[in-house]
Amino acid sequence: MCSTDADARAAFLAELVAAGHLHPTGVPGLYGRGGVFEAVVRGFDALVDAAAVGQSDERRHYPPLFARADYVRTSHIQSFPDLLGSVHAFTGKDREHMELLRKFHEHEDWTRDLAPAAVMMVPAVCYPLYPSLAGTLPEAGRTVDMEGWVFRHEPSDDPARMMCFRQREFVRVGTGASALAHRDAWLERARALLDRVELPVTPVVANDPFFGRGGRLAKATQREQVLKWELVVPITSTEAPTAVASANYHLDYFGQTFGIAQADGSPAHTSCIGFGVERIALALFKTHGASPAAWPAPVRAALEL
């Protein structure tokens, strides 16, 4: 990023902090949220609720942790090793505790005395869902409305690139045709929702941030097959606008990985639309100003502010 982008990030973050919308914790990319920020989040979530009526079979909320045994069945560590979050805990007895305390007080690396817990941080809201769907789906497949917190180890001074944030997702599991139809319908529905709050979004073909040399091929393949779309809007850069929603078709990857079968026995295909909750709130503050009281009347009405 050029220095002007860095200056823009710093200025926007300072504005958000001064307004009480974000509260720094001393760790880049990790913030507390203020009451007005949360009111904006609740307003947009209600707007999504209204658009989602009749669009899913059920709603699920998962914690920001999921089983390590399920994580290792995925290729996440091959594709995104730089973003993963692994939970570790102390499992020793008195002798090990004394050694842990010695290292702690002498400023040695006491973290090496911790052992991997049975859980990992959730990298995307839909990850805990797929293991629960193992087996044969109903003839009509499944559509699940999900929301929750996710973690990506991506410390940054860009307020739109947080390490811990919320996603609202609508996941389709079934035939390839139904998964594609779900993705494309929700892409248009998401664009209409963001238009209602007067965000200048643009749909673009995109790719995930696959890691390393092998990741370059994965990025090219994802783009060539048009598996991922993003709705982007300027937040801290006009040249590199930020994705506030993404619509993804995973082919039969999760069906194969977790043994999810269609009614005919073939691996299920999946797709999802994901809203970046914090990014949408930030885009609203960037587009309309730090005080929602001064936002355009249609936007305040839509968000019930």
Summarize the structure in words.
The protein has helices spanning 3-18, 35-51, 68-71, 76-79, 94-105, 129-132, 176-196, 212-224, 253-258, 277-288, 297-303; strands at residues 22-24, 31-33, 58-61, 65-67, 86-89, 115-121, 135-136, 142-151, 164-174, 202-205, 228-233, 242-249, 260-261, 269-276. Strand 11 (228-233) and strand 12 (242-249) form a beta hairpin. A 7-stranded mixed beta sheet has the order 3-8-9-14-12-11-10. Helices cover 38% and strands 25% of the residues. By secondary structure, it is of the alpha+beta class.
Based on the coordinates given, report the CATH architecture. Answer: 2-Layer Sandwich
Would you tell me the structural class of the helices and strands?
alpha+beta
Poorly predicted regions are: none
Determine the fraction of residues in helical runs and give it as a percent range. 25-40%
Mean pLDDT: 96
- Please give the order of strands in the largest beta sheet: 3-8-9-14-12-11-10
Rounded radius of gyration (Å): 21 Å
- Helices and strands, in N-to-C order? HEEHEEHHEHEHEEEHEHEEHEEHH
User: Whole-Å distance between the termini?
Assistant: 35 Å
**How many β-strand runs?**
14
CATH class: Alpha Beta
The biggest beta sheet is recorded as: 7 strands, mixed
> What's the CATH topology name?
BirA Bifunctional Protein, domain 2
Count of distinct structural domains: 1
- The proportion of strand residues reads 15-25%
Count of helical segments? Answer: 11
CATH superfamily: Bira Bifunctional Protein, Domain 2
Cα shape: globular
